[in-house]
Write a structure and sequence with these properties.
Blueprint: H1 30-33, E1 42-43, E2 46-52, E3 57-64, E4 72-74, H2 75-81, E5 85-91, E6 104-115, E7 121-129, H3 145-150, E8 169-173, H4 175-181, E9 187-188, E10 194-195, E11 197-198, E12 201-202, E13 206-207, H5 211-223
Parallel strand pairs: 3-8, 4-7
Antiparallel strand pairs: 1-13, 2-3, 2-6, 4-8, 5-6, 6-7, 9-10, 11-12
Length: 224
C-alpha cells in the first residue's frame, strides 16, 4: 500500500474567528467554522464574482487571502456550478497557530470566474475544501464611502446581489494567483483603510474606525 504523500508546507491561513478550543484540540474545526461570524471592525478583502460551470452560473463571494499559499473553492460551490475535475493529490495543511491537519485526498478543479460587469474572465485551478472560513460580515455603508465615490471606486460586496445562492465565502484566492490579479497599488483612505484594485474590481480592507478615531488619526498625521 502506497503511503500518502505529505504536502507541507501547504499553509492555509483562515480569517481569525476568535472561536474557543480546548488545549488538546489540535485539529482544525472545519465543520464548525462556517457557523462562526468574524468580527465586524476589521474588513477583509472580499469581492463578488460570477462563477460559470456546466450546470449553472451563480454569483459568489470571493476572499483574497495572500497569507495562504494556494487557492481554494468549497465543495458546495463545485457541486452547484459543475466545475470539471483536473487532478487529485494527497495533502496536509498547516493552520495558523501550528495545527496540522490529517493527510487527505484533495481534488483540484478548473473554475471559470468572471467579474460582475463581464469585463474580465479567467480560468483558475482551485483546490476543493469543505469550508474556507467563517461567515464574513459585508462591508458596512457609511459616510467614508463618499471618498471612494469621488475616486471612482465602487465596491461590489456592500450588499448581496439578488441572485446570490451562497451566503458564505465560496472561493479563496491565495498567493498563487493574487499577484496576477491585482492591477494597482492599494489606495490609502483617510480612515486608514486601503483599497486595492483587482481584475475583478475594487476591494477594501483594514480596521473600520468611527468618526472620533478618524479625526484623531488625521490630527496625528498633521502633527508629524
Amino acid at each position: 500500500m502506497t503511503k500518502p504523500q505529505t504536502m507541507l508546507p501547504n499553509i492555509m491561513l483562515s480569517p481569525e474567528t476568535h472561536a474557543s478550543a480546548t488545549p488538546n484540540d489540535s485539529k482544525p474545526q472545519s465543520s464548525l467554522s462556517a457557523n462562526v461570524v468574524c468580527q465586524k471592525d476589521v474588513v477583509l478583502k472580499t469581492i463578488m464574482v460570477k462563477l460559470i460551470g456546466s450546470k449553472k452560473t451563480l454569483a459568489a463571494q470571493l476572499l483574497f487571502d495572500e497569507g495562504s499559499q494556494l487557492s481554494n473553492i468549497t465543495t458546495e460551490t463545485v457541486k452547484k456550478i459543475g466545475a470539471p475535475l483536473v487532478h487529485s493529490e494527497w495533502s496536509r495543511s498547516m493552520m495558523f497557530g501550528g495545527a496540522i491537519s490529517d493527510p487527505r485526498k484533495v481534488s483540484n478543479y478548473q473554475v471559470s470566474i468572471q467579474s460582475l460587469d463581464n469585463s474580465f474572465s479567467t480560468k483558475l485551478i482551485l483546490r476543493e475544501t469543505p469550508v474556507i472560513c467563517g461567515v464574513l460580515p459585508r462591508i458596512q455603508i457609511g459616510e467614508w464611502m463618499d471618498e471612494l465615490e469621488k475616486s471612482g471606486i465602487r465596491l461590489s460586496d456592500t450588499s448581496p446581489p439578488e441572485d446570490i445562492e451562497l451566503q458564505v465565502i465560496s472561493i479563496q484566492i491565495g498567493s498563487d494567483y493574487w499577484g496576477s490579479l491585482i492591477t494597482s497599488a492599494p489606495k490609502l483612505l483617510t480612515n486608514g483603510m486601503t483599497a486595492p484594485n483587482t481584475k475583478f474590481g475594487w476591494t477594501i480592507s483594514g480596521f473600520v474606525m468611527n468618526g472620533t478615531e478618524i479625526l484623531a488619526s488625521l490630527l496625528k498625521l498633521q502633527s508629524i
